[in-house]
Structures are given as structure tokens and as C-alpha cells.
């Protein structure tokens, strides 16, 4: 055989040797191709919680540069997209969560008995958010039956201080099952499903005080419920829950150290227990009585006249608009002011304008006609002249100059104390004076 092989090789043309760079490139391409199209097989059981972590570390070496050491040093953000092969979304029982591009993604859910024996292929596409390079894996899920472990009794807890990705961690879910075992004390206990409170209609918590979304955790076993769990079905417990009060459970201290349980939302279910049937129900034979042939309504229905409705709809608003228009026109055009009112308002406006012009000269000297006259010889003060109201002041100036005043050159006469001189003075035109309190000055 060896000689035949040698003879066969001797008949072939010599092949050119591959360079080292080309060989490295070919091996790298083969490695990437094998990693992209590699299938991963998992075998979850129906009715039991399935958790699969999409680790970012396993995808870092598939993006350029193809070196895990360089990828670890760069720490690129990576996101995942999961879907059923050939379909845009995942199966109904399978859920996915990834909180940030720098955290691992998690596929979780509880397979249904209808999916037993079916091979479910999930395409996992990883995207490097820095370079936008993609890598693809295929996850093959083979669902098996779980007939050897019946879970007749199931309890659903609501954990208020946990998010779903925190609860899915293996050490956290293991610690929670340990706390349930200490309360329930079954031989075997399994987690059936984990659901976020947001999927049950819960509200997104405020980003304060490290608030959590909350998680519903369902566990099951073949052992009946313990007395501690049965306390949630007592009337006292139900009354406190209806009053928005926190009930007191004897086994709460088993969970309080790590898990904050809402005991008002605890649900206990016996899946093998048939619901109570109502014996008063009387079932018929399922056949409708014969009432003859069905007579549909006639197609020749009388048409409805909408003319009256149309007229009323338009006539009433138009009539109201016309009345308002007439009233407004009468007020604007028929109720005009007379000439007397116009003249009156015109005089008021003219006086106002004159007063405003006079107010601009407030810093000018006071008229001498309004000030008391001081006699430089005797030192006596002569009051200003007052004129009767019948004086004609239409043609006299408003202010009198001090040189033209006749009392400045007249010598005072001797009079009694408290009296002003009463010497005659030539007549001067009347002027308007304002009274002044001389004693105050």
C-alpha cells in the first residue's frame, strides 16, 4: 500500500509549498468558521427551570483582533440577539435578558410538556458595539420529559429585593431553594419558573434607594405544604393583606437575611386537586330547540329623512349669530355721542395737556405776587395784595416783576403792634394769587 501510494504520488504534479502567513490566515479562518457554526446541545426537562448564560468571554476571541488577551484588555461592549432558527423571535416559553452591554446575557424559561421530544434551535448573534463585528452560535435545546419526579405541590414566592438576572445566578437560586427547604422540608425541591414582576404588569421602579423590580419564583415538590406556608391562608392573614398591612409569618426569619418576601402574594397550588364542581348545574343535550327557519331583516328598509335635522342644525346657530350681529351693530353705529359730549371731552383733554406742560417748569421761581413783601427800612412784612373776584384778569400777566411793584419804594408808617401799614397805593391790575399761611413760615 505504501508503494502504491508512492507511485500514485509520483504521477501527480508537485504541489507548491504554502507560506507561513497564508497557513496562519487559513487556520484563523477555519477556527472562526468552526466557532461561528459550532452547535451547543443542552437537555432541559419539561416543567423545570432552564437557565443558559451567554458569556461575553466566549465571544471576545471571535472579533478582530483574534486574540483573547487583546480582547480582554479592550473590554468591548457586546450585545446578543436570540431567535428561533428561521423565525424572528424566540419560543413562547423562552425569555432573554441582558441588563447592559458589559454584562452577560441569560436565556431562561420553563419548557412545556408539549415541547417534549422537539429539537429547538436558537440562533445567538453577538454584536461588538465598538467595531460592529458579529459572531453567530447555534444553541440546540433537546427537551426531555420529567416523569420520574412529580411536583404535585407548587408554591410561588414574590421576592421584592431582587432583579431577575440577580435571581438567575446559580448561587442565589441555590440559596433561595435552601431557605425554602428549611421551611418546607421536602426530600426534593426544584425551581419551576422565574418571572420578572414587569412581565406580570409590575411598574418600573424609580432609580433611587437601589429599588428592585421584584421576581416571582415558583418551586415545586411532592411533599404537602408545611404549617408555616399554610398560615398565609388563614382569615387573619387575608384580612391584614386586604388592609395593606404586612402580616406576621413565623418562618419569615428564614428568608429575611437575604430575601424580602411579600407574603400577601404567596400562592399555594395543588396541581392534582380537582376544582370543586357545582352539582346544581343541569346540562342539556347540546341541541338548540327548533324555532323554525331564520328570518333575517328585510333589505328594503325605510330611509330616514335627515332634512329636518340638517335645517335645525344650521338654522339655530345662524339665527343666534344674526341677533348678535344686529345688537353689536346698533351699539357701535346707533349709540354715538353728541357734540356737547365731544366738546366737553376736548376741553378736558386740552386742560390736561396744559397742566402737563406746566409741570415741566416746576423748578422755576415762585411768582412774587404770591410771596410776602419785605420792607428793607422797617423790617415789616406786608401781605400780598388780594383782589376781588370781579377783577378782570384776562389781559394781565401771570407774574409781576419786583421792579414794578409799588410797595417796595414806599416808606412804612407807624402803626400798632400786629397791624400792617395801610398807606394808599396806586391801582395795579388784578392778578391771581394763592393764599399762604405767613405765620407758618
Profile the largest sheet.
4 strands, mixed
- Could you tell me the radius of gyration in angstroms? 54 Å
End-to-end gap? 149 Å
Shape: extended
Widest sheet: strand ordering: 1-7-6-3
**Helix amount:** 25-40%
The average pLDDT score comes to 75
Derived from helix and strand composition plus strand pairing, the structural class reads alpha+beta
Oligomeric description of these chains: single chain
Helical region count? 10
Give the amount of beta strand, in percent: 15-25%
Protein name: Epsilon-sarcoglycan
Domain Dystroglycan-type cadherin-like: 41-150
Transmembrane segments: 310-333
Membrane topology: Single-pass membrane protein
Describe the structure.
A hairpin with a 7-residue loop joins strand 4 and strand 5. By secondary structure, this protein is α+β, with helices and mostly antiparallel strands. Among the domains are: about 30-145, Immunoglobulin-like (Sandwich); about 150-275. The model is unreliable at about 1-20, about 20-35, about 385-390 and about 400-440 (pLDDT under 50). The protein is about 25% helix and about 15% strand. The strands form four sheets. A four-stranded mixed beta sheet has the order 1-7-6-3, with no helix packed on it. A four-stranded antiparallel beta sheet has the order 9-10-8-11, with no helix packed on it. The chain has a three-stranded antiparallel beta sheet with strand order 2-5-4, with no helix packed on it. It has helices at about 1-10, 20-35, 55-60, 70-75, 165, 170-185, 225-230, 235-240, 305-335, 340-360, and strands at about 40, 50-55, 80-85, 95, 105-110, 120-130, 135-140, 155-160, 190-195, 215-220, 265-270, 375, 380. The radius of gyration is 54 Å and the shape is extended. Keywords: Cell membrane, Cell projection, Cytoplasm, Cytoskeleton, Glycoprotein, Golgi apparatus, Membrane, Transmembrane, Transmembrane helix, Ubl conjugation.
Amino acid at each position: 500500500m505504501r508503494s502504491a501510494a508512492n507511485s500514485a504520488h509520483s504521477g501527480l504534479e508537485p504541489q507548491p509549498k504554502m507560506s507561513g502567513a497564508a497557513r496562519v490566515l487559513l487556520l484563523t479562518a477555519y477556527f472562526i468558521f468552526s466557532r461561528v457554526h459550532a452547535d451547543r446541545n443542552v437537555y432541559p426537562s419539561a416543567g423545570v427551570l432552564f437557565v443558559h448564560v451567554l458569556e461575553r468571554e466566549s465571544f471576545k476571541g471571535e472579533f478582530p483582533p483574534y486574540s483573547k488577551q487583546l480582547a480582554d484588555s479592550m473590554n468591548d461592549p457586546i450585545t446578543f440577539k436570540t431567535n428561533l432558527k428561521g423565525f424572528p423571535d424566540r419560543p413562547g416559553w423562552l425569555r432573554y435578558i441582558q441588563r447592559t452591554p458589559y454584562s452577560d446575557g441569560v436565556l431562561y424559561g420553563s419548557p412545556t410538556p408539549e415541547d417534549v421530544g422537539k429539537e429547538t434551535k436558537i440562533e445567538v448573534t453577538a454584536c461588538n458595539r465598538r467595531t460592529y463585528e458579529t459572531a453567530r452560535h447555534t444553541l440546540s435545546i433537546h427537551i426531555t420529559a420529567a416523569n420520574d419526579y412529580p411536583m404535585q405541590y407548587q408554591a410561588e414566592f414574590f421576592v421584592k429585593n431582587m432583579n431577575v438576572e440577580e435571581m438567575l445566578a446559580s448561587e442565589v437560586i441555590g440559596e433561595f431553594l435552601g431557605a425554602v427547604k428549611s421551611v418546607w422540608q421536602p426530600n426534593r425541591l426544584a425551581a419551576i419558573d422565574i418571572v420578572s414582576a414587569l412581565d406580570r404588569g409590575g411598574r418600573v421602579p424609580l432609580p433611587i434607594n437601589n429599588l428592585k423590580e421584584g421576581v416571582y419564583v415558583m418551586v415545586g415538590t411532592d411533599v404537602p405544604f408545611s404549617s408555616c406556608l399554610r398560615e398565609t391562608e388563614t382569615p387573619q392573614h387575608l384580612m391584614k393583606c386586604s388592609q395593606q398591612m404586612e402580616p406576621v409569618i413565623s418562618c419569615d426569619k428564614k428568608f429575611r437575611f437575604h430575601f424580602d418576601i411579600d407574603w400577601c402574594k404567596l400562592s399555594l397550588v395543588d396541581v392534582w386537586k380537582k376544582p370543586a364542581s357545582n352539582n346544581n348545574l343541569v346540562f342539556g343535550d347540546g341541541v338548540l330547540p327548533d324555532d323554525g327557519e331564520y328570518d333575517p331583516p328585510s333589505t328594503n328598509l325605510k330611509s330616514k329623512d335627515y332634512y329636518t335635522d340638517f335645517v335645525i342644525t344650521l338654522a339655530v346657530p345662524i339665527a343666534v349669530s344674526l341677533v348678535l350681529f344686529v345688537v353689536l351693530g346698533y351699539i357701535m353705529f346707533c349709540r354715538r355721542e353728541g357734540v356737547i359730549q365731544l366738546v366737553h371731552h376736548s376741553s378736558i383733554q386740552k386742560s390736561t395737556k396744559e397742566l402737563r406742560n406746566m409741570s415741566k417748569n416746576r423748578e422755576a421761581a415762585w411768582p412774587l405776587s404770591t410771596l410776602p413783601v419785605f420792607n428793607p427800612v422797617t423790617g415789616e412784612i406786608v401781605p400780598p395784595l388780594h383782589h376781588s373776584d370781579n377783577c378782570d384778569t384776562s389781559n394781565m400777566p401771570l407774574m409781576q416783576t419786583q421792579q414794578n411793584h409799588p410797595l417796595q419804594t414806599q416808606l412804612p408808617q407807624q402803626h400798632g403792634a400786629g397791624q400792617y401799614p395801610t398807606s394808599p397805593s396806586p391801582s395795579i391790575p388784578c392778578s391771581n394769587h394763592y393764599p399762604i399761611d405767613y405765620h407758618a413760615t
